[in-house]
Amino acid sequence: MSAEVLAGYLRAQATEFLRALRLHREAGTGAASSQGSAEAALALRRAARRISGSLHTFQAVLDPGWSEAMRPELAWVSGTLALEHACSARLERLLQALHRLSGTAALPTRGPAGAGLPGGSGGPGGAARSAAAVAAGGGSASPATAGTGTTTAPERGSLTVGAAKAGALLDRQLTLARTRAHSTALQALGSSRFHAVADKVAVLASEVPLTPAASAIDLRPLAEAARERLVDAVAALPLLTAGSPYNAEALVHGLSPDPAPHPQDAPWHQVRLLLRLHRYAREVLHRAAETSGGAGTAAGAEPTAPLTAVVPAPTTVFPAVPPAAPPHDLRLLVTGEALDRHRDASEASAAAAHAARTPRIAPATAYALGVLHADQRHEVEAARYAFQLGWQKDVLGSS
């Protein structure tokens, strides 16, 4: 499988990067155009991740000096642009959990993520602050009591004072973090460092720096190596423990005074990254199958060895997919979504623990944050259980 296929894939992703950058600049920074700006930032991150992942997997066919210098810069772009969305999603997740644990109604309907300016009422920070304001009032105020000083007994299922104050504290901390992330992203996009990255991507869109021996290198063994790294990393996970629901393993170290993240989460985060690299390698191989007309390979089938570690390869025939679409694998979809939930719950639990360490907070507030932290650690455990089911069970075959 020729390296020219990889060159075509990288050129296409570089073009997507430049197109998203142009859309982001055209959208501006006003509140009315913030949704388009958020979508452009997401497209920028998506293209940067795919270019960086391909440079890692297929580095043997690329100029080593260029690829080693390019990868950390693309990771910096993707990570910087992801911070604002992560803060907004984390706050929404924690406020939803507070309401769920209190038995209250769902949070008010909000605008799309990324809409509005930081600190404005139209953005996720403003929507979250509105929800926190409702929480601080013990639920939504009725028209009869709104604007009056009358105090009524809270209805069953309304937020307690501790939960309401916990929501307000999380709102202040995460909204501040989101505002800082927004400012950091704007500064990064206007920096000389980002302009240098954009210039290199513009060159990549027309010329890919391959090694002199690239024409003699087959891409399939390199993609297979990425799959094997994923399989080895999954084999090192405690899947036997994760196969038992409510095993409380994710709560270990929950009372540790160390503010560092749970050490047991790191291997799962690493598997998530390796799974992403495997997906991107499959996209490159799928492009090669399209280039060759797909002869000898079923549409959507994996050109390399199937993704299996515990069970034999499934014999299910894959449905046909449009030529422009990447190959679909339900196993990758199920496990990838589980690992995304694992990452989100892990970071949300860390945010709750960080808020609980705020000096001089009321015991009731600290208690609510402790319950919230435990709830998110249970979500971590549930995500691990879903991952091991998706990995070990033949999700492609009939049940």
Descriptive overview:
The protein is mainly α. The chain has 2 domains: 3-141 and 157-204, no CATH class; 218-311 and 320-392. The chain is built from 11 helices and no strands. The two termini are 36 Å apart. Mean pLDDT is 79; it is low at 109-157, 294-327 and 395-399.
Notable characteristics:
mainly alpha; globular; 2 domains; 399 residues; 11 helices; disordered C terminus
Provide a concise account of the structure shown:
The chain folds into two domains: 3-141 and 157-204, no CATH class; 218-311 and 320-392.
The secondary-structure element order is: HHHHHHHHHHH
Cα shape: globular
Helix content: 55-70%
pLDDT < 50 runs, ≥5 residues = 109-157, 294-327, 395-399
The first-to-last residue Cα distance is: 36 Å
How many domains comprise the coordinates? 2
- The total count of helices amounts to 11
Structural class, by secondary structure, is mainly alpha
Element layout with pairings:
Layout: H1 3-27, H2 34-57, H3 64-102, H4 124-136, H5 161-189, H6 192-204, H7 219-235, H8 239-242, H9 266-291, H10 330-356, H11 363-392
Protein name: CHAD domain-containing protein
Biased composition (Gly residues): 113-126
Biased composition (Low complexity): 127-154
